[in-house]
């Protein structure tokens, strides 16, 4: 879906409540999305990380483009994407194709330090399956669409600073899309109004992620170009 052409006034509900799942959400087991090795290559910073069984074939094509083909096994998962180091306030434009089955996301993904925060701006998915319970923090609407806001916490898990306890921030798009512009400052402002404070920006990538979750296994293909 293309971005809305008419600017809407942001609406944000900031009162935390018990976990309320968007459509298609299941809560099963943990997945790991950290320990990635960043490499500076043509078209920006490219990251590929995988664990466990399964076939995860991702390649950077140059010019900000990467492709992935995946078929998972129990205990397996991967994250791949192209982006920026440091991250921060940007208008991230992307286009391409994303055809996924099972748990995983097409998302803008990043980290901050002090405080240590792992965050996702989720654009599309088949099944969302967070490892920890999510707490809803509100929603907001602007010209690029409507997103629901959540937080969660990971305890003694790998991070960009080693094994740590840290918070995750989530913006989940209510109408899925593959292609458009993600204005990160809009999400950062909405998170701040909801009491979700970021730190200093580390890296940020437009990623494809897939992971096994109980009996649910990921599979699919993606071809994404980031600018």
CA radius of gyration is 16 Å
Q: Can you identify the CATH class?
A: Mainly Beta
> What does the main sheet amount to?
9 strands, mixed
* Adjacency order of strands in the biggest sheet: 1-2-5-13-7-8-11-10-9
Extract low-pLDDT stretches.
Answer: 1-43
Can you say what the CATH homologous superfamily is?
A: Glycoside hydrolase family 11/12, catalytic domain
What is the share of helical residues?
Answer: under 10%
Q: How would you state the average pLDDT, rounded?
A: 83
- State the end-to-end distance: 18 Å
Shape: globular
Which percent range describes the beta-strand content? over 45%
As for the number of domains, it is 1
User: What is the third-level CATH name, the topology?
Assistant: Jelly Rolls
Number of helices: 1
Structural class: mainly beta
- What's the number of extended β-strand segments? 14
The appropriate CATH architecture is Sandwich
Describe the protein's architecture and organization.
It is a single chain. 4% of the residues lie in helices and 54% in strands. It has 227 residues and is mostly beta strands. It has one domain: Jelly Rolls, CATH 2.60.120. It has a 9-stranded mixed sheet, covered by helices on one side.
């Amino acid at each position: 879906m293309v971005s809305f052409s008419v600017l809407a006034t942001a609406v944000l509900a900031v009162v935390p409540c018990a976990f309320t799942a968007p459509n298609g959400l299941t809560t099963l087991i943990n997945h790991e999305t950290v320990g990635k090795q960043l490499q500076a290559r043509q078209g920006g910073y490219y990251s590929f990380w995988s664990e466990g069984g399964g076939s995860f074939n991702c390649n950077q094509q140059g010019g900000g483009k990467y492709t992935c083909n995946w078929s998972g096994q129990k205990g397996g998962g991967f994250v791949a994407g192209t982006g920026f180091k440091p991250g921060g306030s940007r208008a991230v434009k992307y286009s391409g194709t994303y055809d996924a089955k099972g748990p995983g996301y097409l998302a803008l993904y990043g980290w901050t330090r002090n405080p240590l925060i792992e965050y996702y701006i989720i654009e599309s998915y088949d099944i969302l399956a967070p490892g920890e319970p999510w707490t809803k923090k509100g929603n907001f609407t602007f010209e690029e669409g409507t997103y629901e806001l959540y937080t969660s916490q990971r305890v003694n898990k790998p991070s960009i600073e080693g094994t740590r306890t840290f918070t995750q921030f989530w913006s989940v798009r209510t109408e899925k899309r593959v292609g458009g512009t993600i204005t990160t400052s809009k999400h950062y402002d909405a998170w701040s109004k909801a009491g979700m404070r970021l730190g200093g920006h580390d890296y940020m990538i437009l990623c494809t992620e897939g992971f096994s979750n109980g009996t649910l296994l990921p599979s699919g293909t993606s071809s994404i170009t980031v600018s």
